Amino acid sequence: MPELPEVEAIAHFLREHAVGLGIARIDVSQISVLKTFDPPIDALRERAVSDVKRRGKYLALVCSRPGDTEIFLVFHLARAGWLRWSDALSAAAPKPGRGPIALRIHLSGGSGLDLTEAGTKKNLAVWVTRDLAALHQIERLGPDALEVTESELGGLLKGSSARLKTFLTDQTVLAGIGNAYSDEILHVAKLSPFAQANTLSDEAAQNLHASIYAVLSDAVTRCVGESVARLKGEKRSGLRVHARTGLPCPECGAPVREVAYADRSFQYCAQCQTGGKVLADRRMSRLLK
């Protein structure tokens, strides 16, 4: 799933490539991705992309026309969605309901982009709105993970009884962190994924804040400027523990361990994060407290 660093990098890419171009046509090949009907998506035609905004993991194309109010095309790439840019986009419309392309945006000059989604679970979502802040999905977001202050984070921690893994990935608490970067942040902070948020000491809370900023800002630095096609590889190359089960921890050399639940998993280092205590895998037994 694209998280804050990749989404910020996509926003940067689109600001460089799409801003100033007109919207000539939009093809919707998977109608289920559209979550709004007013304004209609055709209202974006003959407008120009004037800016690109990011809110957590959400991207919004600001679509403008002289003498008219702005309209925002908002999208969330979800777990398996992605954006594909082309300097010479095919003029043919993608076949409805077939293939990975959910929506195609034709821009002036022949360039454009496809929103795609792999797999059978279709969660990619698109909204068209005149009021970005009032869109429920945006309105419910917590503070941006790269902008939250140390005192704000401390207050959020004290008000939550959730485990840190859940706390970090709850978009209504902090916007932008997902499964991969929460593993990385907790590893850098040397905190257990199962530690309870409101039990952290002030020192641990300060360390967590520093780790959030360090991990995310480093990833943004690595990602911004890369082509969209290279972002997934860039993300994988910078991971220390996530998706590295069995490999040596880069800090202590102990094997990276995994806890799996439902159709997901997370990784951690028992030596660095849990005092050597191995957290039980849900596939085999109940989680250890």
TrEMBL record:
Documented EC number(s): 3.2.2.23, 4.2.99.18
Every FPG-type domain range: 240-274
Catalytic activity field: 2'-deoxyribonucleotide-(2'-deoxyribose 5'-phosphate)-2'-deoxyribonucleotide-DNA = a 3'-end 2'-deoxyribonucleotide-(2,3-dehydro-2,3-deoxyribose 5'-phosphate)-DNA + a 5'-end 5'-phospho-2'-deoxyribonucleoside-DNA + H(+); Hydrolysis of DNA containing ring-opened 7-methylguanine residues, releasing 2,6-diamino-4-hydroxy-5-(N-methyl)formamidopyrimidine
Origin: domain of life: Bacteria
Cofactor (UniProt): Zn(2+)
GO molecular function per UniProt: 8-oxo-7,8-dihydroguanine DNA N-glycosylase activity; class I DNA-(apurinic or apyrimidinic site) endonuclease activity; damaged DNA binding; zinc ion binding
Occurrences of domain Formamidopyrimidine-DNA glycosylase catalytic (ranges): 2-124
A biological-process GO annotation: base-excision repair
Keyword terms: DNA damage, DNA repair, DNA-binding, Glycosidase, Hydrolase, Lyase, Metal-binding, Multifunctional enzyme, Zinc, Zinc-finger
InterPro entries per record: DNA_glyclase_Znf_dom_DNA_BS, FPG_cat, FPG_N, H2TH_FPG, Ribosomal_uS13-like_H2TH, Znf_DNA_glyclase/AP_lyase, Znf_FPG/IleRS
PROSITE patterns, sorted: FPG_CAT, ZF_FPG_1, ZF_FPG_2
PANTHER family assigned to the protein according to its UniProt record, in alphabetical order: FORMAMIDOPYRIMIDINE-DNA GLYCOSYLASE (PTHR22993)
Family: Belongs to the FPG family.
Protein name: Formamidopyrimidine-DNA glycosylase
Organism: Hoyosella altamirensis
